[in-house]
Amino acid sequence: MKSTKVPWLEEWRFPSSNRSASVLNVIRIISVETSTIEQLWDPDSSGGQSRSLLDEKTYRSAEAERQGSLNDISEVTDASGSILLLSFFGLPVTPEKMIYVSVILLVTILLILTSLLTITVIATSESQRNIIGYYMTSLAISDLLCGTLVTPVSIYGALDESWKADLKSAVCKFETYTELVLIGSVVYIFMWIGVDRHIALARPTRYEVEQTFTRCKCWIIFSWVTSALLCCPILFSDMPSHFIETTFLCSLDWSEMMPYTIAIGMLVFVPSFVCITYTYSYIFSNLRHPENLEDSQKTQLENDHSFITTFFVIISFTISWLPVLSLRAYEVFIQFKVQLPNLHFSLMWLAIASGAWKLFIYCMMSKDFKSSLCRILIRPWCPGYATRSDAERCLESGY
């Protein structure tokens, strides 16, 4: 491969600001042996302007001279001022792809920030360091790992489609493995939360005896270890993992691995679904008929808001993932892939962003959590306020 110089691209004048810039600093055209140069000269255009049609799939950006600053973003515009191509860190990016990258970056930031805040609040607030707090910490760690190990690969994959095939295969295997481990651990944690809430309502007097911190930690470790072991065949077998261009994520072709798909479903999703359905059906059945409850059970429901909080966390996760799973099931049923890339992208990243909603649910449903979060956020501005009441007074004072 060798660089090809195009003389009339040496300088480009921008009509809006009457300034010129070297387009070769923005785009480097590399000729490939199997490709052809698709350029058109339009002599009838005003001012003898030249118009070049650059096929993004034909030309690839040079690897050298990539800048390390976000300020190194250049634009190529035609005579009307519309953007034809962007150069981001030396990588040619269309405006449509830049929108995709922005959405993925936003989801990444939300996952990291909300998970870090959740972990910090639970770790620093004594009222949140309970059994449910441990389970919520595990969920927050899953979101944090998703924002640091999974979504950054999607950002790079969206920017640069020319990364080496062998590297892509290795990275895709690891990303697919990480995705499944995180989803499996989250689903298992939801199941243990349902069991915990069922015991808290059915046997409130024996709750502290049956649900100890040691037992809670064992269930969390079991969830992570089991998920990691069940997904090991992805790393140590010939299961193909492909980079999906519509969602910028790596995934397995589940239709070609039906035995493994059924095994994962029977060991992870089916037990969790049955357990969650039974436990929360029991809880809401008692909420509709409180006259059948004992005094200790009524007191537990009145004082413990975790029943509703955990329910909304599970519901938000289900609602976020249901559209993309329904679309996938529909495609399998009709044996045809829906040719709507934007739909696939939107539904998938709506599902991934479900982890960010937990923080907002905690704040809406738990006054203690909200107060602890406020105390953490205002501490740099009000260093003299340490308690919750002091934090509330600091907020009211306008600082």
TrEMBL record:
Q: Where in the cell is it found?
A: Cell membrane
Q: Which GO terms describe its cellular component?
A: plasma membrane
Q: How does it sit in the membrane?
A: Multi-pass membrane protein
Annotated GO biological processes are: cellular response to hormone stimulus
PROSITE patterns in alphabetical order: G_PROTEIN_RECEP_F1_2 (PS50262)
Q: What organism is the protein native to? A: Soboliphyme baturini
Membrane-crossing ranges are 98-122, 134-156, 176-195, 216-237, 257-284, 305-325, 345-365
Instruction: Determine the domain of life of the protein's source.
Output: Eukaryota
Any one Pfam family here would be 7tm_1
Q: Which Gene3D superfamilies does this entry report, sorted A to Z? A: Rhodopsin 7-helix transmembrane proteins (1.20.1070.10)
Q: Which GO terms describe its molecular function?
A: G protein-coupled receptor activity; peptide binding
- The name on file for this protein is G_PROTEIN_RECEP_F1_2 domain-containing protein
InterPro entries for this protein: GPCR_Rhodpsn (IPR000276), GPCR_Rhodpsn_7TM (IPR017452)
